[in-house]
Specification:
alpha/beta; Spore Coat Polysaccharide Biosynthesis Protein SpsA, Chain A; 3 domains; 10-stranded mixed sheet; 19 helices
Length: 602
């Protein structure tokens, strides 16, 4: 394939649609490597650089991932107890799950099964047959049905391994799953819990189709408050599970979620290690929440109770509203009861729009905090903005230019508040109590900066913080590119697993709508003019690199008529933060951003 030739949109769509059939034909005619080379070329040409990830793109990605060299199985490592609760499974589903454990390349495992008083006559003979075939199966048949939490606790009592991996009765582990976990345990001796990426699968006409890959961003405790973004494959230190008293009866449907929240409360975020590999296949069928969360409506209430218990045990000041059509909470952080002085810095980086100026008294009135207001403008706009400054009882500061970061740097030097909220004067904050929510999210341990989402007048996102994508270099290599995350996605779209509508950590956040602590900004030398358009990202990277402090995007919207930088690469950022761009915090290494959606990279 000629890598330089231009393709029309129709040609790209046809290539994508027929990619697997063409790869199969090349494999038949010229051998397996020819088919793989063709798929690699399609990725290099950007044929799969648009949604959806599922479908041809993911199938092609899986083929290439399967052909990649595998790391060796560790020579030594932990014994892993696989915990499996069982209750009235379909026999073919249970056999497949058991076979996936028997096929593991890591041999030091045991399978602890607690049958929760199944009433199907074929369940017990099937389990006993497998136990006769392999002594590593440990069976307990409960006399009474106690539901999944009780069954898991029964299986946990039988566990003799150092670690416990959770597997449902109808799901599958790929053959290398436990070997990869064993290697991760050896590499991270201080961890309490490991979790991996996952996907779903369906079976049609005897063939298994994998879909909906969930490539996780690493451990994101802010996103975790909204949904179980850890989920499968979950592997826990056995002594830690027992110290936490196992699974909580009465929280069925969210028992794993409750366990993760209690682990976070007891051990902190450093206890969790993400393994960026798809090590769990979640069966999708009509009785599973993988197909429809409403299949288990009680899970919604159980998750609510788990969040409430976490907030009570940790002193988190937040509420967790859940929309009717969702199981995900939209966490609303509340400011401290005695919040520090907050400075709202209004930055006049463009000619003022009179209709917007008239709305700022209202927007500040409903921001939810008593704030100091500083109006920062170039010298030529000072007299124009004097009436607004008087209405807002704002102090006015003059910056040497209309450059947005020069204005912000001036605001930093004159602000009296301990917390700074930066807003462009011609933007319109659409979310009520926006400053209060941002302040509440910021003033927690581990947070460097909080950002908002920016919308165009037509309802498309200009950004939701930053993401890292790829940009071709003149020599044909791909360079990391800093991108406005979710740019081009419509507000009514949920995006990837609806995460854009939930508070979540990001590699960095943008200045318009940014909230941060003044002392941290000063410690990181403010917004470095040498970083140009990406001085806000430079600050966020500095806070993460020097202090381990994360940046957070809230689903608070700002209406902006301004422009957003396209996908770009910065030489200075690559030189200064090359390692972070190569492995950005809170972004899965399998994903890169391009306008309109995430795409897979190989």
């Amino acid at each position: 394939m000629n890598a330089r030739a231009a393709l029309t949109d129709e040609e790209r769509r046809n290539l994508r649609r027929n990619s697997l059939a063409l790869a199969d034909a090349l494999t038949r005619d010229k051998g397996p490597e020819a088919g793989l080379d063709f798929l690699r070329a399609l990725f290099a040409r950007g044929i799969f650089n648009s949604p959806p990830i599922s479908g041809e793109a993911y199938t092609a990605w899986r083929r290439l991932a399967a052909a990649a060299p595998r790391p060796p199985v560790p020579a030594a490592g932990p014994r892993i107890s696989v915990i499996m609760p069982v209750c009235n499974p379909r026999p073919e589903h249970l056999r497949a799950a058991l076979d996936s454990v028997l096929a593991q390349t890591w041999q030091d495992w045991e399978l602890c099964i607690a049958d929760d008083a199944s009433t199907r006559e074929d369940t017990r003979p099937l389990l006993e047959d497998y136990a006769r075939r392999d002594p590593r199966l440990r069976l307990v048949f409960r006399a009474e049905n106690g539901h999944i939490s009780a069954a898991c606790n029964t299986a946990l009592q039988e566990a003799a391994g150092d670690w416990c991996a959770l597997l449902d009765q109808d799901d599958l582990l790929p053959p290398e799953a436990l070997a990869v976990v064993a290697a991760a345990v050896n590499a991270h001796p201080g961890a309490q819990m490991f979790f991996s990426d996952e996907d779903q699968f369906v079976e049609r006409d005897g063939r298994r189709e994998h879909l909906n890959p969930l490539f996780k961003p690493g451990f994101d405790q802010d996103l975790l408050l909204c949904c179980n973004c850890v989920n499968h494959l979950g592997v826990y230190r056995t002594e830690t599970l027992r110290a936490l008293n196992g699974f909580t009866p009465g929280l069925e449907g969210a028992q794993d979620y409750d366990l993760v929240l209690r682990l976070l409360a007891a051990y902190g975020a450093k206890a969790f290690v993400h393994i960026p590999r798809v090590l769990y296949h979640w069966r999708r069928h009509e009785d599973s929440t993988s197909a429809d969360w409403a299949a288990k409506p009680y899970a919604r209430e159980a998750a609510r109770r788990a969040r409430a218990a976490f907030a009570a045990s940790t002193g988190l000041h937040a509420t967790f509203p859940v929309p009717e059509n969702s199981i995900h909470a939209h966490t609303r952080f509340l400011p401290p009861r005695r919040p520090p002085l907050t400075t709202v810095a209004l930055l006049a980086d463009a000619a003022p729009v009179p209709a917007l100026l008239d709305r700022w008294p209202e927007w500040l009135e409903r921001c939810g905090l008593a704030c100091e207001v500083v109006l920062v403008c170039p010298a030529g706009e000072r007299e124009t903005l004097r009436p607004l400054a008087e209405r807002l009882r704002a102090r006015t500061a003059v910056a040497p230019s209309a450059d947005l970061f020069a204005l912000a740097d001036k605001a930093l030097r004159v602000a009296r508040g301990d917390v700074l909220c930066f807003q462009r004067l011609n933007d319109a904050p659409l979310s009520p109590d926006w400053a209060a929510q941002a302040c509440g999210a910021l003033l927690r341990p581990g947070v460097a900066a909080v950002g908002c989402r920016s919308l165009s007048p037509r309802g498309f996102f200009r950004h939701a913080g930053y993401a890292v994508g790829q940009q071709p270099a003149p020599d044909g290599d791909m360079l990391p590119a800093l991108c406005p995350a979710y740019q081009g996605l419509h507000r009514q779209s949920g995006g990837y697993f609806n995460w854009i509508n939930l508070p979540h950590a990001a590699p960095a956040v943008r200045l318009d709508g940014l909230c941060c602590r003044r002392d941290l900004l000063e410690d990181c030398d403010g917004f470095d003019a040498r970083a140009g358009l990406w001085a806000d990202a430079d600050f966020c990277f500095a806070a993460w690199s020097r202090r381990g402090l994360r940046s957070l995007v809230l689903p608070l919207d700002i209406l902006s008529a301004g422009s957003t930088a396209p996908v770009v690469a910065s030489t200075l950022l690559r030189e200064r933060w090359g390692e972070l761009l190569a492995a950005p915090p809170f972004q899965n290494p399998a994903l890169a951003w391009s306008p309109g959606g995430w795409h897979l990279r190989i």
